[in-house]
Amino acid sequence: MYALTIKELNVWYGKNQALKNVSLNIPLRQITAIIGPSGCGKTTLLKSLNRLLDLNEDVKVKGKVFYDDVDIYGPEVDVTEVRTRIGLLAQKPFPLPMSIYDNVAYGPRIHGLPNGQSIAEIVESRLKAVGLWEEVSGRLKTPAAGLSVGQQQRLCLARALAVRPDVLLCDESTASLDPISARGIEELLRNLKEQYTLVMVTHDIDQARRLADHVVFMWLGELVEHGPAKRFFAEPREALTQAYLAREIG
What we know:
The protein is of the alpha/beta class. The protein is built from ten helices and ten strands. The model has no long low-confidence stretch (mean pLDDT 94).
């Protein structure tokens, strides 16, 4: 089964074409890693999956991205709902200028609560899910800005999970963290795939090898190769993929 299906996706920034006829299925409840050199279209592809590209006025998108059998670029689609169901964990943590508690409660207050759950229950469950509850339970009303960078990134992950997404996009989400914090986030992502579909952009080939179930290799805006991670790293089919992996790993 697939969480997302991309068909003939093309993206332009002004006159510069960033993605060229990308067609791809994103497996359900697996970690898909998007890799490739800088400027190859990795982040553009990632942000096309929840219409964050719409925030750029000079962007033109042609093609289809299906989520739950609906093209998210269709004229009748609620973009806010798309971004709720398909969340984003950014490269750098950006806690809202409010308390730890209110950061996690922000989304449920706007989008509504599931039946039988209170905001307090959601806050506690999501902070526990990211391993932060024991560290902050005694200071939930203190500013989130007082947390360490690693704690802030876990808080941002809890905030993303609080609105009950189906898919979580991760844009180099460990790049700004120290090695210990980065491994902590990796372990969280590995555990979360039991409930969520995760799509991650990474420059770190070793990270892709550690985490990914499925790998997508981009080059100059084109999809060169994709497939199960074990096969991809053991027997890359394309010469361009082989050369890239040899350079990055060797």
